[in-house]
Amino acid sequence: MKKLILVSGLLFFSQSAFAALNVACNGSDCLSFGWNFNDVSKNQSGQVQCIENNCFNYGWDVYDNYGTTNVRCINNSCFNNGWTESYNGRFVANVSCYGNDCLRNGWQTSQQGRRITTTCNQNNCSANGWRTFVPNV
């Protein structure tokens, strides 16, 4: 579970897969009760609260030193259908899963007129990590 949150944390707090992010799950269940994080590389810390105690289906709110990020699942399944992201009330990104399975196939982030592609290492982002790149257009 911690690896899954690490993947998610890196996705939402950084475009680099090498960020130092420490995560502690609330109530031993990150995807129900949220988590606290400390990003050493950005000197940023905060907390995440799952919407209706279900991050997987509904999304989450991130509260940190800089503001609030709202992640909302598309069609009640973030890691199958993707999600939208807003920061301090402004739309930031739209994320869509490849093959309806972000954690196996990766995802595409559309952000401010650019696309960012994320692919899972050995078809398992939560266990093996991922690569993020800007595709040649």
Which short descriptors sum up this protein?
disordered N terminus; 6 helices; globular; 137 residues; alpha+beta; 10 strands
Secondary structure: helix percent: 10-25%
The counted number of beta strands is 10
Spatial ordering of strands, largest sheet: 1-2-3-4-5-6-7-8-9-10
The value of Rg in angstroms is: 14 Å
Q: Report how far the terminal alpha carbons are from each other.
A: 35 Å
Mean pLDDT: 85
Largest sheet: 10 strands, antiparallel
| Strand fraction | 35-45%
Number of helical elements? 6
Element-by-element helix/strand order: HEHEEHEEHEEHEEHE
Q: What is the general shape?
A: globular
Structural class: alpha+beta
Would you write up a description of this structure?
This protein is α+β, with helices and mostly antiparallel strands and 137 residues long. Helices cover 23% and strands 43% of the residues. The protein has helices at 2-13, 30-33, 55-58, 78-81, 102-105, 125-128; strands spanning 21-25, 35-39, 44-50, 59-64, 67-73, 83-87, 90-97, 107-111, 114-120, 130-133. A ten-stranded antiparallel β-sheet has the order 1-2-3-4-5-6-7-8-9-10. Strand 8 (107-111) and strand 9 form a beta hairpin. The N and C termini lie far apart (35 Å). The model is unreliable at 1-18 (pLDDT under 50).
Short synopsis of the structure:
With 137 residues, the protein is of the alpha+beta class. It is built from 6 helices and 10 strands. β4 (59-64) and β5 (67-73) form a beta hairpin.
Topology of this structure?
Elements: H1 2-13, E1 21-25, H2 30-33, E2 35-39, E3 44-50, H3 55-58, E4 59-64, E5 67-73, H4 78-81, E6 83-87, E7 90-97, H5 102-105, E8 107-111, E9 114-120, H6 125-128, E10 130-133
Antiparallel strand pairs: 1-2, 2-3, 3-4, 4-5, 5-6, 6-7, 7-8, 8-9, 9-10
